[in-house]
Design goal:
Blueprint lengths: L1 H29 L6 H19 L7 H20 L7 H23 L14 E4 L2 E4 H23 L1 H11 L1 H6 L4 H23 L9 H16 L4 H22 L4 H15 L15
Antiparallel strand pairs: 1-2
Helix pairs in contact: 1-5, 1-8, 1-9, 1-10, 2-3, 2-4, 2-8, 2-9, 3-8, 5-6, 5-8, 6-8, 9-10, 9-11, 10-11
């Protein structure tokens, strides 16, 4: 029973980590708390559902489509809506992204209604049995792919010119500008990359959770908790925080019932926020040594 609980938590935590990376990076690089991030995850889930239901496309194969579509959405929203208001402070960006979340959610309610939908490929119910522990194949594959995508994003940041520009801008915007980096373009690329990862997480989540226009609302709370657990802007922290959050939910569900898992998770969130605001795996400020 203990091992089953641990396995369930870890497999779910990989998806939470992937869903958080983009949110955490946008917050760390630009100081923007993007409340529309949950809607991006929801859109990714609907792209997977449309591909599966109407075109017979395997949900894993829909991930590149989700990432491309969400990159474009995130890039354009940042470039033309968020960039012009960044200098006005945090409050206006919160209000704008909250409004965007409401608009996107309502558009999908109009287009798809609030009915719950699901993506159930033929292999959805298959599991591996290892030492008496059942490992659902879909969750295992989703978790593994989430880790691969997170590692790919890490390599992009550390090895590519645009990735280095993102990190440099996060450390010191004015110095980055002097060095020839365009902060406006860099911010748009950061937002696009974050949205792309949210789209991938949504496609994976479509096989694990019921899909509705309100899926993003349930995810945004988890994303906040994982961001604080991992540390704002900490890429590795987001992944580790996702695994930890999955374990917390799994153990809370096993010990107190499914209805308590969110309560337990948010209590731990508040405790960590008070005792270690930079997160368990993060830094006091993005770009600073731990």
């Amino acid at each position: 029973m203990l091992m089953q609980t641990i396995v369930n938590g870890l497999l779910l935590g990989g998806v939470y980590g992937l869903a958080t990376i983009g949110f955490s990076m946008v917050w760390g690089v630009m100081g923007v708390i993007n409340l529309a991030h949950g809607a991006y995850i929801m859109i990714g889930a609907y792209i997977a559902w449309i591909g599966f239901e109407r075109f017979g496309l395997d949900p894993f194969l829909s991930i590149p489509i989700s990432m491309i579509a969400l990159f474009a959405i995130g890039f354009l929203i940042q470039r033309f809506l968020l960039n012009p208001i960044l200098k006005t402070g945090l409050l206006l960006s919160l209000a704008l992204t909250f409004g965007l979340d409401l608009i996107l959610t309502d558009l999908f309610v109009l287009g798809f209604t609030s009915d719950l939908r699901s993506v159930r490929p033929a292999y959805a119910s298959e599991s591996l049995q290892i030492a008496g522990v059942l490992v659902p194949q879909v969750r295992l594959a989703a978790c593994a792919l989430a880790v691969v995508l997170a590692w790919g994003f890490h390599l992009t940041l550390s090895k590519t010119r645009h990735g280095q520009a993102i990190l440099a801008t996060a450390l010191d915007r004015e110095t980055a500008r002097i060095m020839g980096i365009n902060p406006t373009l860099t911010y748009a690329l950061t937002a696009g990359a974050g949205a792309a990862l949210a789209g991938a997480a949504g496609s994976l989540a479509s096989m694990l959770f019921p899909i509705s226009p309100h899926l993003g609302a349930s995810f945004i709370g988890a994303v906040f908790v994982v961001t604080v657990l991992g540390g704002i802007g900490a890429l590795g922290g987001a992944v580790l925080g996702g695994f930890l959050f999955g374990l917390i939910q799994s153990f809370a569900s096993a010990a107190f019932g499914v209805g308590t898992q969110q309560i337990v998770a948010f209590v731990i969130f508040l405790v960590i926020l008070v005792l270690r605001p930079q997160g368990l795996f993060g830094r006091k400020f993005f770009g600073e040594n731990a």
